[in-house]
Amino acid sequence: MPDSFFTGIDTVIIRVSDPAASLNWYKEKLGFSETYRDDSAGLIVLDTGTPTSLTLWRTDTVIRNNRETSSFPIFRTTDARSARAALAGNGVKTGDLVSDDVVDFFTFEDPDGNLLEACQVKE
What we know:
The chain is an alpha/beta fold. Helices cover 18% and strands 34% of the residues. The strands form two sheets. The protein has a four-stranded mixed sheet, with helices on one face. The termini are far apart.
């Protein structure tokens, strides 16, 4: 088998109903910034502060996420408890904080109900 042809993940697509409104949410709630926009394609690329960007891409189809089958990004955090409290305090719908011996994590949703997660790996 050959070595991988890939050197990383470039971007993760998040389908949204309104890219401009979603951009505001991702900027205000998560602190991400816009790096590229193509209004004719209905997409906006966000800098996440990591090598992997997020691309908000418009869809006219109703977004239906299933927590058991949907793919979703997991963001690294150094303090899951504080991150969850800050997001919840800023009006973001968050799930419970889950802790075990290895990680603390929680899920949260964007305005379209897209599932997102934050995870702190314990050392």
